[in-house]
Design goal:
The complex is a heterodimer of chains A (254) and B (217). By secondary structure, chain A is α/β, with parallel strands linked by helices. In chain A, 41% of the residues lie in helices and 25% in strands. Chain A has 10 helices and 10 strands. A 6-stranded mixed β-sheet of chain A has the order 6-7-8-3-9-10, sandwiched between helices. A 4-stranded antiparallel β-sheet of chain A has the order 2-1-4-5. The chains are: A alpha/beta (254), B mainly alpha (217).
């Protein structure tokens, strides 16, 4: 009985229950329920201001939520407990719209920093892993480069490698191609797609609808702080149930 | 009456200027240490710490340095704490310097984009690691020019220590004037020595600024 319970819980990498968050009087999240299974790829779509980025940022504690529960890989998010946050954040990787590489460190050091500090890996171990990850994102020759010597697409791929170096259970992608020139979007999306194929659990806020449709297992449409519609991409894009989603989809096809 | 040659005047002023340099150094190092501690205290995120440091800064930036010197020298004496002019001047200048440096440095820390903090947090770094490995190295680069520039203010500020009887460059100038009755010549020399002390510092601050802008471009 206990065992059965454990396996079912393990299947859910992220469990979100009745999550609420307000900025002042503005209720941004009005009770979000969402469970994400291991290996699942979730695309979160919706208008700006619908709360999708805030939801993502709650999952690794960049935003503190007001009420509800959030569990990642069996670890409840306890915002005031520094040790619990440190443990939880090791399971959650995040990639940002503006890359946020550390400009004073080389590409290699960007990737090695957290594993050496947080996981106490030796410099040699961390460097080996950094080189492997750079090869995986197609940037083997950039280990000693500085971030400002790279294109936006290359910087974002380094950011992905940096997040992967912590071996997270789930990777959060917050509009990771929105700051890129159109010709650089493809190289980043290809890396993300390969991660999805390798079974990485992904939650991504995105405006790339064709990408979401191709790669994701489920699409979450957020509207005014709620999960308005959720389902497989073929259903959601092919047969939207609500007027809000229909309107949203038609507005982005213009 | 003893005759002072120009050489006598300059020689005595240069000897006294060593005390100006020493007092500036003490104020700067002491102010740097206190300012650094205040900065960390302020960044700790506690609202109380933030208010306390803000009040401290307002107090020392909002009152004349001369009053701060008088209060540490005469005021503390009234409370039974007798400090030599030397200790009083060091103390007052240290506090004064720290209040300005903590503001300068806070501005530099604030200039680091929020995304740097967020990236560091999302990689599970704790607060002290975020500050030490991500924020300070970047803030330090932009902090050096204004910090060195402020050193000039400290050097000139030490002149006020003459008013509580500390014999440094300005006080020596006054004493020599009283003996020679040549105020224009003596104070002219005093001014030139201050300029010789401060100008290289200003130039250095400028060149540092240029270097940073060049690497940014």
């Amino acid at each position: 009985m206990q065992l059965a319970h454990d396996t079912s819980a393990k299947m859910h990498i992220v469990q979100i229950g009745q999550l609420k968050k307000a900025f002042g009087s503005n209720q941004v999240l009005k009770g979000i329920d969402l469970n994400v299974q291991a290996g699942e790829v979730i695309a979160i779509i919706g208008k700006s201001g619908s709360g999708k980025s805030t939801l993502l940022r709650c999952i690794n504690g960049l935003e503190a939520f007001d009420s509800g529960t959030l569990i990642v890989d069996q670890l409840p998010l306890l915002h005031d407990d520094a040790a619990a946050m440190r443990a939880l954040r090791q399971r959650v990787g995040m990639i940002f719209q503006s890359f946020n590489l550390f400009p004073h460190l080389t590409v290699g050091r960007n990737i090695m920093l957290a594993p050496t500090l947080v996981k106490k890996e030796s410099a040699q171990q961390a460097a080996d892993r950094a080189r492997k990850l750079l090869a995986r994102v197609g940037l083997s020759d950039k280990f000693d480069a500085h971030p400002d010597q790279l294109s936006g697409g290359q910087q974002q791929r380094v950011a992905i490698a940096r997040a992967l170096a912590m071996e997270p259970s789930v990777l959060l992608c917050d509009e990771i191609t929105s700051a890129l020139d159109p010709e650089l979007v493809g190289e980043v999306l290809r890396v993300v797609e390969s991660l999805a194929q390798e079974g990485m659990t992904l939650m991504m806020v995105t405006h790339e609808m064709s990408f979401a449709r191709r790669v994701s297992n489920r699409v979450v449409f957020m509207h005014e702080g709620r999960v308005h519609e959720i389902g497989p991409p073929a259903e959601l894009f092919g047969n939207p149930q609500t007027a809000e989603l229909k309107q949203f989809l038609s507005s982005i096809h213009d | 009456m003893v005759e002072f040659s120009l050489w006598d005047i300059v020689r005595n002023l240069v000897i006294a200027a060593q005390w100006t340099v020493l007092l500036s150094t003490i104020a700067f190092i002491g102010g740097g240490v206190v300012g650094g501690l205040l900065l960390v205290f302020r960044m700790s995120g506690s609202i109380l710490a933030n208010r306390l440091v803000a009040g401290y800064v307002q107090l020392f930036q909002g009152t004349p340095l001369l009053m701060q010197l008088f209060l540490t020298y005469f005021g503390l004496a009234l409370l039974g704490v007798e400090l030599s002019s030397w200790v009083s001047a060091s103390l007052a200048l240290t506090l004064y310097t720290s209040a300005f440096l903590v503001e300068i440095w806070r501005g530099c820390v604030n200039a680091i984009p929020k995304g740097q903090w967020e990236a560091a947090q999302s990689l599970a770094l704790n607060f002290s690691e975020q500050v030490r490995y991500i924020i300070f190295p970047q803030a330090l680069r932009i902090a050096i020019p204004p910090t060195v520039g402020f050193l000039v203010q400290v050097v000139k500020g030490t002149a006020l220590a003459s008013l509580i009887g500390f014999v440094e460059l300005t006080k020596a100038g006054t004493m020599i004037t009283n003996a020679t009755f040549k105020p224009f010549l003596v104070y002219g020399c005093v001014a030139v020595i201050y300029f010789i002390l401060c100008y290289p510092i200003s130039l250095y601050a400028k060149s540092l600024e240029g270097k940073i802008n060049a690497t940014r471009a």
